[in-house]
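Hypothesis: this fold can be encoded by more than one sequence.
Test: take the structure tokens below, design a sequence, compare later.
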């Protein structure tokens, strides 16, 4: 046998790796010296997990609402100020592209439609038989 194997068989490590490396015991707090025994049962774990999930859900919901409000505020900052009155005729920007049609050659504005109400940055227009609420950035006056 090689001499290293004989030495490793005769000596067994005594103590922690820190003691073997530095030659003395590590000074750690008493709370870290012994491993704590968990006092959990399944009911405690499930209750704690449920509470953590509920708080995480509440935080996510609050941040989602804040994000929506921030996005709306930023979008409304870029609003073009139109002076719309009830009964005005307006054109609506058409964002849809119909199947088999080219966006480049299609009409960008459809209408005219009649303004039924104006509420801040939104206007309600009569589109066929329905009343549709749209942002004023999608409208332009019809002359």
């Amino acid at each position: 046998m090689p001499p290293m194997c004989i030495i490793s068989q005769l000596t067994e490590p005594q103590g922690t790796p820190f003691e073997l490396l530095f030659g003395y015991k590590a000074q750690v707090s008493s709370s870290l010296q012994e491993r704590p025994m968990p006092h959990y049962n399944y009911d405690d774990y499930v209750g704690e997990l449920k509470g953590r999930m509920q708080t995480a859900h509440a935080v996510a919901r609050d941040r989602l609402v804040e994000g929506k409000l921030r996005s709306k505020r930023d979008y409304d900052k870029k609003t073009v100020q139109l002076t719309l009155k009830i009964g005005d005729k307006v054109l609506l920007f058409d964002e849809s592209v119909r199947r088999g049609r080219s966006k480049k050659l299609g009409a960008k504005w459809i209408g005219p439609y009649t303004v039924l109400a104006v509420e801040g940055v939104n206007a309600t227009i009569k589109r066929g038989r329905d009343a549709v609420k749209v942002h004023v950035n999608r409208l332009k006056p019809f002359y």
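The mean pLDDT is 81. Strands lie at 89-93, 109-119, 122-127, 130-135, 139-141.
Hypothesis status: open.
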